[in-house]
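Collaborator request, handled under Task 6.
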Amino acid sequence: MNNKVENNTGVTEPGSLPELLGQLAKGSAAVIHDEIELVIQRFRDKLSTIQQAAILIATGAAIGFAALLSFGAALIIGLTSYTSPALAALIIGVVFAVVGIILALIGSKQLQK
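Structure tokens returned to the collaborator:
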């Protein structure tokens, strides 16, 4: 039951409003589906980028922590020329703890804002 009408130019046109609405609905559904797929793909791409950045940050932080430990050991070794090794380690440990507490407080205040 095809109600298509041929106009004077020889082009076949849909014959009824329900057919036109059906085609419009199918086309709209396809566009919406494609847009959803595009959003999902963009989300996956951004998530992949974020994961790679997080891995780099974690690796950099681990290497930085190892460097901080090495720096602390060098400071302790250098300070043993002036005091006992135990006191040198205690002094450097206190200095690092104070710096860590100050940085944590600054970060906490920034988060509260």
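The cover message to the collaborator said: "Residues 17-79 form the longest helix (63 residues). The two ends are 68 Å apart (CA to CA). Please let us know whether this matches your experimental observations."
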